Write a sequence for this structure.
């Protein structure tokens, strides 16, 4: 079930660039990214998944560079949130491979992932809106510095959010509950 969820996220990750600017090169990169990600999901290998995610980011960068591809906030936010959730889900599956997991623990983890996704999307949206208001008032030479600071802030915020463990569910035996 967890692998199927990760597979759906890979479809979103590869599909966003294809929907933005479909072409043969974008499709080939998407196919390579999907194959690498699928291998990472099947083997629960974070390095293989990272390689696939990197190819998908190259695919998206190519789309943004192409004349028919235009940067849109929804696509960028979708790619970012999808990547964050994909690594969380595959990392969870790798850590607990073969273990029996209580349904309550799975629901707690799902709530944690939902919170991560919502917080990431909200932060990205607020940063995008803030960037538009700042962009109108800054002189041209300041853009790279502000972009670098913004990227650093997003990266540090994502690291902090992703490194926080989910709240633990107290598991009790049947005798303790009675």
């Amino acid at each position: 079930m967890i692998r199927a969820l990760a597979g759906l996220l890979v479809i979103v990750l590869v599909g966003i660039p294809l929907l933005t600017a479909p072409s043969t090169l974008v499709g080939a990169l998407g196919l390579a990214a999907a194959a690498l990600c699928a291998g990472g999901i099947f083997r629960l290998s974070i390095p293989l998944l990272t390689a696939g995610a990197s190819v998908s980011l190259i695919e998206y960068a190519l789309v943004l560079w192409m004349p028919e591809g235009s940067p849109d906030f929804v696509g960028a936010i979708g790619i970012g949130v999808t990547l964050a959730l994909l690594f969380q889900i595959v990392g969870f599956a790798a850590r607990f491979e073969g273990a029996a997991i209580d349904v309550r623990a799975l629901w707690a983890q799902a709530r944690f992932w939902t919170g991560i996704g919502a917080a990431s999307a909200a932060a990205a949206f607020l940063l995008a809106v803030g960037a538009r208001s700042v962009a109108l008032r800054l002189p041209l030479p300041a853009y790279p510095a502000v972009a670098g600071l913004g990227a650093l802030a997003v990266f540090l915020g994502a690291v902090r959010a992703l490194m926080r463990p989910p709240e633990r569910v107290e598991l009790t035996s049947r005798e303790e509950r009675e």
Q: What stands out?
A: The chain has one domain: 2-170. The helical segments are 2-20, 24-43, 46-65, 73-95, 103-135, 143-163, 174-177.
